[in-house]
Amino acid sequence: MIKTIGVILAGGLARRMGGGDKCMRPLLGRPILDWVTERAVPQTSYMIINANGDASRFQDYALPVVADSVEGFQGPLAGILAAMEWGASQHPDVKWIVSFPADAPFVPAGLVQRYLDAAEDQGADLVSACSAGRVHPVCGLWSTSLAGDLRHALTQENVRKIDRWTARHRLAEVAFETDPYDPFFNINESDDLKRAEEIARNITAPST
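^ thats the sequence. predicted structure below, dont judge the formating
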């Protein structure tokens, strides 16, 4: 099995939901982050949470909390760079980072293996998911060999948009079905939380 380091990207400011840790909002009585970790952790060899500020607020998850290694809340790319650099110091033999948004509670099982297969088949350095005609680059596979280029892009070129940076490299896309729901549905606003509750109830409802 190819080793991977998973990173749950929880470093955003959640402005559209009034600030704070969006991933700690309740979804059917449990933090959104619970749903994410339950799906993501079993698929990776190691898992960290990328978040800034007081790390103790995630102590219940017993996972390393790694802050951005560049200042200024520069978005998901900063969290991915932090994961790459953490991996280089802690597990230098691991060549792949897998990123999971902290506000996407329904990421599919088998995601990481499909990414690894696509990377091998297409000779890709990066892999993104796509569903319903949309690409989801925040939920992706990233070669650690790109850490230096990513740091330069963030600190010297002021690159913030993921697709602007990924366009420079060999990128593969893996398509996922959206029936009965889009597995990459993410919670950006309060209304999204209501839709997530509907999906979660269907997932957890007993079969008849």
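The chain has a mean pLDDT of 92.
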